[in-house]
Amino acid sequence: MPYTIRKATPLDYTAINKLCVEAYLEFEPVVGSANWQLMRDVLSRASDLSGIGELIVAEDSEVLLGVIAYIPPGNSDGITIPAQRASIRMLAVPPLYRGRGIGRKLTQECIDRARRDGADAIGLTTGEMMQIAQPMYERMGFKKEADLGSRMGVKHARYVLILNQAV
Fold this sequence. Notes:
- This protein is of the alpha+beta class.
- The protein has a single domain (about 5-160), classed as Aminopeptidase (3-Layer(aba) Sandwich), CATH 3.40.630.30.
- Helix content is about 30%, strand content about 30%.
- It has helices at about 15-25, 30, 35-45, 100-115, 135-140; strands at about 5, 55-60, 65-70, 85-90, 120-125, 145-150, 155-160.
- Strands 1-2-3-4-5-7-6 form a 7-stranded mixed beta sheet.
- Helix 4 links the parallel strand 4 (about 85-90) and strand 5 (about 120-125).
């Protein structure tokens, strides 16, 4: 079934928050019960990322299929991603909708927006538990830049895609 990619509106925020919790639920056994409670709380407020960037959704004629947050250069956190870089946060596609290229198209939309915004690079963080997303990022040209230690009991790393070779 075909789907479209578009910028989210506030009318999508409740569905986005539910979708993020649903997409990450499979990781509860990996992070453990206590960490899952913290993670679920953050995921249930994923739409708050609209305050620092753009939420982009994939949808078919009936439901939202996935979401990603694009953070423009100058708005990245400056801790895990250098502030001058664009960044990607919270890619979420529930298991039922995987295998249709949704995560890749949402990620590509962020790359396109970073180029539009004149970013020299776009970064993201990902955990070793992300066994579908991490190889996809690598196939799209992202390179591991740094290990970030453990977060919620899972090893995390920063990946970067250089958009301007002068960097």
